[in-house]
Structure formats: structure tokens, C-alpha cells
Amino acid sequence: MSTAGVTTIVIPTMGRASLAVLLEALAEQRVGVPVVLVDDRPGEGEPLGCAEGLDVTVVRSGGGGPARARNIGWRHARTPWVSFLDDDVVPQSDWYACLLEDLAALADRPEIVGSSGRVTVPLPRDRRPTDWERGTKGLETAAWITADLSYRRDELSAVGGFDERFPRAFREDADLALRLGADRGRVVRGRRRIVHPVRPSDDWASVRQQAGNADDYLMRALHGPNWWTRAQAPVGRRGAHVAVTAAGAIALAGLTLAGVRGSRWSVWLTAAASLGWAAGTAEFAWHRIAPGPRDRAEVRRMLATSVVIPPVATWHSLRGRWRHRHARPWRGVPELVLLDRDGTVIEDVPYNGDPSKVRPMPGARRALDRLRREGIRLVVVSNQSGVGRGILDRARVDAVNERVAELLGPFDGFYVCPHVPEDGCACRKPAPGLLKTALAEAGVAPARAAMIGDIGSDVEAAVAAGVRPVLVPTRATRREEVVAAPTSTASLEEAVDLLLRGAP
Hints:
Blueprint: E1 7-13, H1 18-28, E2 34-39, E3 55-60, H2 66-76, E4 81-85, E5 90-91, H3 95-104, E6 114-120, H4 131-137, E7 148-152, H5 153-159, H6 172-179, E8 187-195, H7 205-208, H8 212-223, H9 227-230, H10 238-261, H11 264-289, H12 296-323, E9 336-339, H13 364-373, E10 377-383, H14 385-388, H15 394-408, E11 413-417, H16 433-442, E12 449-453, H17 456-465, E13 468-471, H18 479-484, H19 492-500
């Protein structure tokens, strides 16, 4: 079987030392596929090292979190499959060969959209594992984690990829899997294996993890109250944490009340609540201490964090419930943006065949580069009736387009209609022919594309092609065209802002 063009490996990273181990392991396996390394460090760090023999492309995601980093990564891919790896895993020596076998087995099964690897978490053999180590061990049985998970690229595109409202490496993989029907058997487990070592942690790592309680309420808003079952996720101790937190709050209130009035009732209330808080906290601490090594450091860590975790978890639950109460399904950014040329990305010079007269619209290069950094493809769709009228020839139109690319950066294609309106062709805007051709050649569904133009024919062509239109009016735009446009912005940069919001 040919390995060319099967899959792209996407690795989001914060530049941890474990990345070098992963890349060396891939290089030793003679991996013959593209690797997209997504640098998610918020600032300009040292260049990421890449192992020799790998076809690595490094792109930046600016510290937007793992969901955003993976989205940028898969949008840069041009293969039928995208294979995600975390930067702290170690693939076994036959991982790549097994990956190809796993994907080849699904070639005639289009109903299967994903293939997950098998995870091994090594634990110490000379002692019982700590609470943190046991938590990491749970990855072995977790469903659909992106530590090693491959998806069909067109399926990722269809749902807009990962929901970037999940800001951390938690629940974003389960959410995507549910949207792709993993709970209905559309994601299967492959033969390939990775090792996921236990990362070092500090004493308060388990407390910081409680921020994930807010993400659980986003899952509930998107997938309903039974999402736990569908995602094969443990229910957790949220109810117990609320009870312990409430008991602690009542005890504090009772102490305050006792200090003011000194009533017997307040003393009994304080005593009962304090006893409930102490019992609940002790039970939680023992639940975490008992399976562990029970050494002094672990006991101290469990006692301290068991006091803090219930109120922190409750706070994040309340925060998430409020914040995500009106959450709607994720839409994501478009995968392809079609652009009118004259009046949209460059100044409109009627029937221009002279490259020296090309002048970019204000802010155009900056706006288009923002789209490129997201992995969004850009094509130009332009009516050039000057060819049909004999004013221009196609070579001069192409020369102008080459100058546009020189000034505004690379485009994935220029699509030109050379006809006059009287020809009645299917490609001249407002007909959708140019747009449909561009969509077909890019392999992008209309729902995953947007069109930016400056006149009504651009909007009409987009609507006819099933593409989202955004009008950026100029002095040439008629008032009725602005009124009729579903969406309009004051500038190209504002249009890009709109498309990049990734709004539901």
C-alpha cells in the first residue's frame, strides 16, 4: 500500500521536553507522512527542534488552547485522514505501520469516521500509585482521547472541528467524538499503541483540574443531561462536593451568628454543620489516601487538597452552569474563503490589464494573513468581462493576478469568468458557477465556506452556491444591495473578524 497522501500527523505542543522524544520515535519509524507541529506557546519562544527525516511544518496558534491548536493543525492538512498525537506520548516501534493498517481497514467503511489507538500508562512497580498517577492511569480506559486518535478530514470539516469554547485539554475530545457519532459506533479502536508517561505535577495540580467542572456544564448544554453515559465518562463527586461546601458555609455562618446573638440554636447549627463538613472532608481524603502509597508527602498533599477541592469544584460548577446556560452547537470558522478581487482585495481599476496599477485595499494583506495562519484556504473568484469584450486577453488578466499574489500573499487559486453578461454563462457572478468550481476543486462543502465581496452579485452568487456571504460595501455598492445583504461589515478586516469568531 502507498503511504503517500493517507494521513497527516497533527501534534499540538507547548514546547515540552517530551516533544523531542516523540519526534525521535516517529523518525525511527521512517514516518512517510506530513507532520504539522502546532506551537501553542503564547509568546515567541525558542524554535522547536525537529527530528531529521521527518516532513515537519511548524505553525503557530498563539496560546489559544488545545482545541484551537488542533483545529489549525487539521486545516493545514490536505490528506483524507488526520492523526492527532499529544506531545507527551511515546509511540511503540511499530506504531506507524499499525496506523496505516488501521486506516487501510476502514477504506471501504465510510460509516466509520475515526480510529483510536490503545494507551498504556506505566506506573511504579515498587509502590502503590499516587492519586495523580491513578488519575493518569484512567487514560487507558477513557474513550476517544486525542492522545492518539485519527479522523476523516471531511468529517472534521463538516462539524467545524473541535469546539474552542473548551479552553483546556478536557472534554473537547469527548464533545467532538459525540458530534461525530462515536457513541453510535462510528469511532473504532485500532491495533496501534502508545505509551503515555505520567507527567510531573505539583501539590496543587488536582485543585487546578477542578476548572473542568465548568466544561462539564458546557457538555450538558450541548449534549443533554445524559452526556455522561454517551461519553462513557465517570459521574464524579459533584453532589458530595456541593454538600461538603454547603456544610462548611453553614458552619461559618453559624459561627458568625453565634458571635452576634449567642443563641443555643446557632451553637447547635454550627456544631452539626461543622461535624458534617469534617466527616465529608475526612471521607473524601481517605477515599484518595487509601489506594495510594500513604507516605508522609502523599498524605499531607491529600489532606490539604481534600479541604480545598470541594469549594473550588462547586465554584467552577456554578460558574460553568451560568456561563454555558444558553450554549448552542459549535459552528467553527470556514475552511475556505472565496474573495472577489476588484473592490474587495484590490482597488477597482476598470478592465485593468496592467500589474503596475494593482493597489491593495487598506489592511488587506494583514486580514488575509490572519486567515492563512488559521489554515483557512483562500481563492479569488472574479468576473473579467474585459476578455469577452476584447479589451483584455487572458494573459494580461493572469499577469494582474500574479501581481495580486505578490502583494497579498499566496492564494489557493484564481477563478476567472471571461464572459460578458449577454453570453448567459453559468460562471459569471451572480451565477454560482465560479464558486461551485472552486468548492469542488478544494473538496470543501458549501456550508464550510464563506464569500466576501463588495457588490450584490457577489452576495447572490454566494447564496446560490450555498455559501455564507459577507458584503464589504464600497462607493460602487448600491444602497439596495447593502440592505439586501444578510451580513455586511465596514471593512475587509471586520469581515475577517466576523469569520474568525468561531461563533455557534
